[in-house]
Each structure stands twice: as C-alpha cells, then as structure tokens.
Structure to design on (587 residues):
C-alpha cells in the first residue's frame, strides 16, 4: 500500500509537467517557446548523464563529447541542399555516437573514481581539439546545417522539423521517450545491477557479475542518449561549433544533475530547467543592468548555495520538509 | 578420502614485491567438511582467500574448481561456477532491503541484462532463491528491513545469505564471527553446521573455541607458509603450532 501511494504521488507532478509543456506553445511568446525547447533538449542530455552518475555511480566529466559528436555527425551527414530523411539520419548519427561512446568507454572504464573523471575529461578535450583545430568541420568557426530533416513516406510528409511547431512537439516526444526508456531500464534487472555496482562493485563481482561489460553498456547507452540531445540541438540551431563539446558544457550538465538531485530521473529534468532559468535570470539586463555581463558569478554562487542547502537536490526537498514538520516517531 | 573434492589449490604463491604473502600453500576443500585456516595477523589468510576467490592472481600455482583449472578465471566467472565468498568487512547494500540484497545476489544466476521490459522485482527465479537463502540464514522476519539498520550479527548473517543466494557449492568465509557476541556466535555456528552437508566450507577465523568445535580439518599458517595441517586433535598437540601461538600470546602479554 505504501509503495502504491509513493508511485501515485510521483506520477501526478509528472503528468502536470507534461501538460504544462504540451500547452506552453499556445501561451508563451516565440522567445520563450524556443527557450523551453532548448531546455527540453538539455533535459534529455542531463537524463543521459543521470544514468551514469546517479544510477551507476560513474561521474563522467566528459559527457559533452557525445552531445557534440552527435551534433557534428548530424551536420556532416546532412546533404547541402535536399532535406535528409530522419529515417536514416537519426539512426546513423546515433550509431556514430554509440561507436564513439564504446571506444571512449572501453578505455576510461579501466580506471576508477577521480581517475575516471580525469580520463573522461581528457577524451572530451581530445574530441574538442579534433573539431577545433582541424578543417574537418570548419574548425573553430563551426559548421552550418542548411536543411532540417523530414520524415516522409512517398510524397506524404509525416514529420517536418523545419516547422517550429512540429519540432517543438517532436522534442517533447523525444524527452518523454528517453524518460520512459530510462525509467524502464532503472527498474529492470539491468538497472538493479547498475545500482548494485554503484553501491558495492566488489560484492557484485563476488556474486558473479562481470561488472566491466555492465558499466560499458551503461556508458554506451548514456552516450547514445546524449546523442539524441546533440542531434536535436544541431537541427534546432542549424549550426554546430566546438563549444558544444567543451569542458564547461560537460560541467554544466553535471551541475544540472547535481542541482536536481543525483539518483532521480525527475531530478535531471528539474535540474536542467532550474539551471536554464537561473542562467536567463542572471543574464537579464533588464534586472541586473551592466552587471548581467558577469552572470557567471551570481550563477555560481547560487548553485553553491543550492547544493549547500539542498544536499540531495531540489527533488528531495518536499520529503525533507515533511520530515522536518512531523516529529520522527522512531529513533535511530 | 570421504566426499568429493570441490576446490583444490596447488602450491599457490603470491609475492608483493619482495614480500612473499603466501608461500606454496596447497589446500583441498571437500563437500561436507569445514576446513579452517588459522594463523596470526599477517599470516596471509586473506591473501589466500582472495586467490581462491579469483580477486587476486597467484604469482605461481594452480586453483581447481570441480576438477577444472580456474587459475586464469576472473572472480565473476568463478562465482557463477559455484564459488561463493563472504568478506571480513561486511559488504552489503545498506540502503536496500534485506530481500533486495539477496535478490540482487541471486539475480547473478539469471542476469538477462538486455531484458529491459521485465521489472527486476518480478524476476521469480531470483526472488525464489533469495527467499530460500534468507530463510536458511535465519533472517526470515527481517525481509523488508533496510540492510543498513540491521544489528552487526544480522549483517553478518545477511552477508552469508547473499552468498547462499547465488547457489554456491564452495563457501569461502572470511571471519564470519568477527565482532559477534556469544549468542550470535552460537547461531552462526548452528548455521554453518546446517550448511555443511551440501557445501565445502573454508573458514578463516580467529575464535579458536569456535574453530576447534566446528572444523573437520585445520590448516595453520605462519608468515605465508603452512606449518601444520590436520584434524583438530592433531593440531591441538602439534608442537610447532603451540610454539607459534604461545609466542603470539606472550607478545600480546608484554605489549
């Protein structure tokens, strides 16, 4: 009974959030609709990292590599003039990203803890300099994407991402799909094994789990889902530059996960929205005038304050407040 | 030789740089027998267990499980072949229930890592094995409790339950009685005697009373080597063993 109640209380806010996102284009101005769409893309990105950080206990500081590699793959694979079909472009982009994740994961998962953090960062920086310093894709200037992909059967167009409206809802569907996939994974045997690896890898090996392939599978899945976000971002902006895989992008997505609450899928989405909201707030010249140029300073201080006051993230706050209000009946 | 040999180590040696932690130790574990390994701190008992379990590769020597050479097998593969171990330091999942601790251990036998549709909680095979292991280990009333909230003795029982949930034939138990009160010790010894008929058990333990009560065979290690091996009565009167233990108790007395 208790379990049932918990599930219900988790589903209601999710449903509300979904309805809010679905009706938002009818209420908000174009600027805000755009901003929400970008935030949904970042939510997908944060969700993919949550699988590594929250579920498996692997703190990757190079997750932007897959976001950026997918974006570059999208730009490089897209033809110059004709609209590419989603039916081959998206699978091709995701396959390329998965391959990159398999290679980077195979090496970095040989290390643990702080070494893992540093090795993932090193790989992401390598990818950054490949795109930044070679003529492969426009170097530091980046590369443009002139046409947005469509999904058509014969002459009948099912989905045309050139339409902003359609693209908004396609992004929302992608967010829901990624969320549901990860929710399924987390409650499956695979997800429980990943949670066991996070809690005590030695015990998992003693029980008979070969933990390395498990971690690699999680790494590839997380990289591929970050690729979904990178694909959407590239198509949305019509432009890709090396900053997408820079270390501060990896840091930002890690902050989103921490801000929302490590270990919870809702946390990743809430964290992404909160991060963007704070960033927009402190960048607003209407509110802060000339000081808005130094938005990083108040953003950083706010995040430090949030983490200090809410050590388990925003999503853990309701339960924490409830516990503070009601006296604890049992001690220890 | 009564019973079937399930695990055999032949002249296993482990060097760490210039230090020989385990020096040409041979050991045989037989079903329906408790084989105790005793020795002073730093005698190499834990290193020996780590080599048998596959956590540490021996520098020399061989390990056989059910007659097959498993020297090069990593630990998870040995575990799936029926080698279970517990740790000196309790290694449970403190934030999961007792049931989930055992269910996850049992799941190692039926992993299906790419079946993402079925809920782990609905995996009947592992649930069934977990329930049996919990009952065997005497934790039947505690199924839904968080593992971290158990008493020390119960945590040690859970450690064994998790090991049993994987369905092992060989049990390597590293100091299961460490830190236990007399009552808890009795319960654990009773548990070991019920497990004995179906398993080959290696027991590393410091509690000498318990060891001499339950062991069928005792191996004594000093400085990485075996100084004596035999049944409890032979070990009790062995002059080398007495010298080694007398030496230690004198050292403790003067410290």
């Amino acid at each position: 009974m208790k379990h049932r109640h918990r599930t219900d209380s988790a589903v209601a806010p999710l449903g509300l959030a979904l309805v809010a996102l679905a009706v938002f284009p009818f209420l908000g101005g174009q600027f805000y609709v755009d901003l929400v769409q970008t935030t949904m893309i970042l939510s997908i990105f944060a969700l993919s990292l949550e699988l590594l950080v929250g579920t498996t206990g692997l703190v990757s500081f190079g997750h932007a590599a897959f976001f950026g590699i997918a974006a570059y793959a999208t730009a490089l694979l897209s033809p110059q003039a004709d609209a590419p079909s989603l039916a081959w472009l998206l699978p091709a982009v995701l396959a390329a990203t998965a391959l990159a994740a398999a290679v980077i994961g195979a090496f970095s998962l040989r290390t643990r803890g702080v070494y893992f953090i540093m090795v993932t960062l090193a790989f992401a920086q390598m990818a950054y300099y490949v795109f930044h310093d070679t003529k492969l894709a426009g170097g530091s200037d980046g590369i443009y994407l002139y046409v947005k992909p469509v999904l058509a059967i014969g002459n009948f167009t099912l989905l045309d991402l050139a339409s902003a409206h359609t693209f908004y809802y396609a992004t929302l569907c992608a967010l829901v799909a990624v969320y549901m996939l990860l929710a399924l994974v987390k409650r499956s045997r695979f997800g429980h094994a990943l949670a066991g690896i996070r809690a005590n890898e030695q015990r998992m090996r003693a029980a008979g789990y070969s933990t390395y392939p498990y971690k690699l599978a999680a790494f590839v899945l997380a990289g591929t889902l970050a690729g979904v976000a990178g694909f959407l971002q590239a198509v949305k902006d019509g432009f890709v530059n090396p900053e997408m895989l820079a270390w501060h992008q990896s840091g930002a997505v890690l902050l989103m996960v921490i801000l929302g609450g490590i270990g919870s899928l809702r946390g990743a989405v809430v964290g992404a929205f909160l991060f963007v909201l704070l960033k927009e707030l402190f960048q607003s010249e209407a509110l802060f005038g000339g000081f808005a140029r130094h938005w990083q300073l108040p953003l950083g201080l706010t995040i430090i304050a949030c983490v200090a006051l809410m050590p388990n993230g925003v999503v853990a706050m309701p339960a924490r407040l409830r516990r503070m209000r009601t006296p604890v009946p049992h001690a220890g | 030789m009564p019973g079937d040999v399930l695990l055999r180590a032949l002249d296993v040696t482990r060097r760490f740089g210039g230090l020989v932690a385990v020096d040409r130790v041979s050991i045989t574990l037989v079903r329906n027998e408790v084989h105790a390994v005793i020795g002073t701190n730093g005698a190499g008992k834990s290193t020996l267990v780590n080599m048998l379990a596959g956590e540490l590769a021996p520098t020399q020597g061989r390990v056989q499980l059910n007659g097959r050479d498993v020297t090069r097998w990593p630990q998870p593969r040995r575990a799936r072949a029926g080698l279970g171990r517990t740790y000196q330091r309790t290694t449970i999942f403190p934030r999961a229930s007792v049931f989930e601790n055992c269910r996850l251990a049992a799941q190692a036998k039926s992993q299906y890592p790419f079946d993402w549709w079925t809920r782990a909680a609905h995996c009947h095979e592992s649930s069934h094995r977990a329930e049996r292991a919990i009952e065997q280990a005497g934790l039947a009333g505690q199924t839904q409790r968080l593992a971290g909230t158990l008493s020390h003795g119960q945590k040690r029982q859970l450690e064994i339950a998790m090991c049993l949930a994987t369905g092992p034939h060989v049990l390597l138990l590293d100091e299961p009685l460490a830190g236990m009160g007399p009552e808890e010790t009795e319960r654990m010894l009773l548990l070991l005697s019920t497990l004995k008929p179906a398993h080959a058990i290696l027991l590393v333990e410091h509690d000498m009373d318990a060891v001499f009560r339950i062991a069928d065979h005792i191996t004594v290690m000093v400085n990485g080597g075996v100084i004596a091996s035999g049944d409890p009565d032979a070990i009790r009167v062995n002059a080398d063993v007495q010298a080694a233990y007398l030496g230690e108790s004198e050292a403790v007395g003067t410290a």
